[in-house]
Design brief:
Elements lengths: L1 E8 L5 E8 L10 E7 L4 E4 L1 H9 L6 H10 L5
Antiparallel strand pairs: 1-2, 2-3, 3-4
């Protein structure tokens, strides 16, 4: 099974990559595909929506943290 997760990069200035990763892998493990990034300092976001929708069509189990992130960014409505 595959999840969409936030993978932390950067030591003192965190930047997060949004990746598709196997559920058995740890957070910093090998990712299957990079589908975007999030910079909390500048509040900058990039999402590769066609790739994300492709994973969703394959019936992925989204992680709750990623759902909260999408709601904050306004991509999903309540």
């Amino acid at each position: 099974m595959v999840k969409l997760r936030l993978k932390r990069c950067g030591r003192k200035q965190p930047i997060y990559r949004i990746v598709a990763i196997d559920v058995r892998s740890r957070r910093e493990g090998r990712d299957l595909r990079k589908v975007g990034f999030y910079d909390p300092i500048t509040n900058q976001t990039y999402l590769n929506l066609p790739a994300i929708l492709d994973f969703l069509k394959r019936a992925l189990n989204q992680q709750e943290q990623f759902m909260i992130f999408q709601r904050r960014q306004g991509f999903l409505r309540n």
